Amino acid sequence: MNRLRSQNPFVLGLLTVSVLGLLSWLQPAHAPTVAGVPLRPVRLLADVLRPPVQPVGRTHGLALPPPNGTPAPPRPPAADTLPGRRAVLAAAVPSPAAAAAPTAPAVANVPGLSHFVAALRQAQARGGKVRVAYFGDSMIEGDLLTGDLRNLLQADFGGAGVGFVPINSLTADFRETIRQTFSADWYEYNLMSDHLPATCPLGVSGHAFLPRVVSNADSTGIVADTSWVAFRPGQRFGPTRRFAQARLFYGPGSRRDQVLVTTDGHRETRPLNGAEALNELALPFPRGGRALRLAFATHGPRPVYGVSFEGAQGITLDNFSFRSNSGVLLQRLPAAQLAAFGRALRYQLIILHYGVNVPRDRTYASYEQAMARVVGQMKQAFPEASILLVGMSDKSTRLDGEFVTDPQVPLLLAAQQRVALRTHVAFWNLFAAMGGENTMTRWVEQAPPLAHNDYTHVNALGGRRMAELLHAYLLSEYQRAGKTGATEPAAATAAAR
């Protein structure tokens, strides 16, 4: 082998690094160009020589002009003035790359929580249930954020239980608010399925599960190899450590279908003879349960949706996470089935929290139209509920060697605000509440970190912080309505719908 030739790659690499290092050190006043095209500056050691974080005042960016001549809404209050708010992270001095990026809009909250506030006040005065549905993507997967929010609301207004749980889930192995195991023989349809048969409509969670048909069609007993699911309470939060009440939701099928219900060792066979599009079976726990197992003996296709764990009164909050969903997929939920769940569950608040999976766009016009249809669908299915659209959280991208707020974030936030204004629902600016530009970078790089190294998804600590911020906003709306003495005025109700 030619020894001199074997050293050529090393010499070439050394020369390349030397030239790049020299260019990054020189930093000319004007960007160099090639054939008239400006070149981005070279920052070879950007990760090593990043400027230190300096605490300064936080900015929330520029307000958006109201569409169609609508009077401009007031600027939102500073996050530090919200009740129950913990101190937030100080903002960093923006780098030149960050300063050049578009600023995210500071949008005000649109009135629209009157139904939810009125239900809370009635529950406080007379008892009763208040139910919340929280729809989202991987940002709430495994009860992230929603578990802490549920616990905070149940501490304020009472309540028990983890809410609606699908028959099986991708998050079962790491969800801490409930322990769930299930057999491997369930057949699943969901929002991502290519074909959705009319005989197996999706449920409110975006899933429908078919248990395996029993091998002996003449048998009315429960055989050993039936499809099953088992639940145990999670131990992270007090209100979810025992089962108080539960309801099984399922679709139509054979009148001979049965389910073997085992609660804390007690076994009882119950019929599944409901013939409606949505049926429910009450599963009481007289002394507070610690284990539930359901084994299904079905003699033909019968969709099973999930189990709702709840209390006799107070707050119930359902986590409806669906990985990779931009929110637009909710249009695949059948209107009739969604309305059936609305009559059964009686929601007072619907939260829609999406953003990280929305495809990049220059205007987000098609996304805006699709989400407006989703909101309209929710209004029809849940006429007794207020609807809250949660704006996109901060998300970082790498520009000139530094992680800064993705320039798409303000564009998507603007589209989400337009959806809220267009459909007359409430809007909460999570981006502004969590700290504005470059918050995600700080959350990743602080100790302990509040987000993962993808600079997009929060961890458990970050989820708790977001839950505290959202709880503070909801509580401020509740307290503000109390000060005005109006729980659900006709004008506010009309605007909210």
What is the number of E strands?
Answer: 20
Q: Assembly type of the shown chains?
A: single chain
**Overall pLDDT metric:** 82
Radius of gyration: 26 Å
In the predicted model, the low-confidence regions spanning at least 5 consecutive residues are: 51-107, 487-497
CATH architecture of the largest domain: 3-Layer(aba) Sandwich
Q: What profile does the largest beta sheet have? A: 5 strands, parallel
Strand order of the largest sheet: 15-3-16-17-20
InterPro entries: SGNH_hydro_sf
Protein name: SGNH hydrolase-type esterase domain-containing protein
Organism: Hymenobacter ruricola
Would you give an account of this structure?
This protein is of the alpha+beta class. The protein folds into two domains: 56-159 and 313-497, 3-Layer(aba) Sandwich (Rossmann fold); 165-312, Jelly Rolls (Sandwich). It is built from eleven helices and 20 strands. Helix 4 (146-157) packs parallel to helix 10, helix 5 crosses helix 6 and helix 6 (365-381) packs parallel to helix 7 (408-423). The longest helix is centred in the C-terminal third of the chain and has 25 residues, at 460-484. Residues 51-107 and 487-497 have low confidence and may be disordered.
Sum up the structure in keywords.
Rossmann fold; 2 domains; alpha+beta; SGNH hydrolase-type esterase domain-containing protein; 497 residues; five-stranded antiparallel sheet; SGNH_hydro_sf; Jelly Rolls
